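Task 17 of the worksheet. Students: predict the tertiary structure of the chain below and write it out as structure tokens. Keep your answer in the requested format; marks are given for formatting as well as content.
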Amino acid sequence: MDIFRKCQEYQLARIAQASGYYPYFKPIQNSEGTEAVFDGRKVLMLGSNNYLGLTTEPRVREAAIEATKRFGTSCTGSRLQNGTLEIHLELENRLARFVGKETALVFSTGYQVNLGVISCLVGKGDVIVTDKEDHASIIDGAMLGRGELRRFGHNNVGHFDRVLKSLGEETGALVAVDGLYSVGGDLAPLPEMIPLCRQYGARLMVDDAHGLGVMARGRGTATHFGVTDDVDLIMGTFSKSFASLGGFIAGDEEIIHYIKHQARAFIFSAAMPASNIAAALAALDIIEKEPERVDRLWEVAGRMRDGLKGLGLDTGDSVSPIIPIIIGGMEPTLIAWKALFDAGVYTNAFVPPGVPEGRSLLRTSCMATHTDEQIDQALNIIENVGRQLGLIA
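Model answer:
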């Protein structure tokens, strides 16, 4: 059989494109954070991970420009060889202090962090335990490793207990969960999970890609719960609140030292370029010195969540600036996405397999730079569209 046959037979996306309800790969012509231009039309942006609005912050832009002038556009090699710059080390030291860990290691993307860390730690005879709603990069990292993958129901501590209990005493186990879940906007129950990890001898890694810059005045989900010392590894990315591209892992020095020399996704990838490092450093400066930005993000999120709930919409278990509008069926979700987009509000459509069957939704996310007027405008548009489509009584 021709290996390309599956490509030729795949028609789902083409059908959506032909019908006009395809919500992906929309090219942005211009963006100033809270608004973006599509096909010459300005739209309110409620579908970005730019939580603190720092991608257009002049100090972040200028830092990236100056770093490019000094170091050029690329490191042209891996960190292991010729790709380590002094500012890589500066960023790693700053990040370790920021999240409360001994040391940190910077990767070129957040996805590579999970691929590299998990696949090098979880070997033959080991087990990786994950939440069923963990990010795809955690699952892919588990699949790259030679260990066994075990999953538990989303935030189901009882099921988590049973999974850990079923492991042999001699089995090495790594638990990997999101801190702040990127679609539902809910938090992992770390205070309930940590005693179970201790009881069964499992290590805990928290992917806080969405929690950093958001929870605990930016310091993340572990700090929010006061359990930093009980979390073995903290992972983060720069493509959300840190207004850049890349990621990192932080933990005890001996663990990071091992990862630095064993993680193939790190060793065999080109180093993060200077512009991205400098942007992340500038963003970190602002997060540390201007915590009122995070406070403002929560004000905006509260206004948005209260407004959506007031309309009778299902926002799930969200306790963060990530606020889903759960619709249920795939078709009505795509119709609602297009109607909102046409009316001037951009959201993210999530349908199976990205979410469970019957749980299709529109993901909205707030920024610290959204004005009250913009949120009110968005809520008015959502209400009008919702009533037209019968989503609101």
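Marker's comment: Residues 292-310 form the longest helix (19 residues). The mean pLDDT is 97.
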